[in-house]
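Record 1 of the preview.
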Amino acid sequence: MMASIKILHLYHDILNLYGDYGNVEILRKHIEDQGFKVEVEKKTINDEIELDKYLLIFIGSGTERSLDRALKDIRRNKEQFVKFINSKRVLLATGNSFELFGKKIDNEDALGIFDFETQRDKDRTTSDVIYSSQYLKQDTVGFVNKRRQDLS
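->
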């Protein structure tokens, strides 16, 4: 029998700034290529969710306004997210969506699961970025387009 993996694409409609649905489809395809059956469920604002049903949660990037809408909604599921993260399943938050899991975004409470705060600036950073790590064989190149922020 083929093993099955359930992926939750959370806020698929409002945190999809750069076509993150395509990233989820590529992820699904690569997992299927490894011999697994993959089911992707999409949930958004006001939907009921049961995070313990999923092995992986994907949240894409969005505008600051969309991220603020998601923040207001995601707070009702804080305990589920704490349990999910502590169970060592995978949460993949791309772009600015990782901010939801810090202590604050500007002066508004976020989920507070991780020990950082985000302070947005009115200036915008638009640039290519190069990421180097001892864990990577080569640099990773990306792009950033967001308000500058200070992560404390």
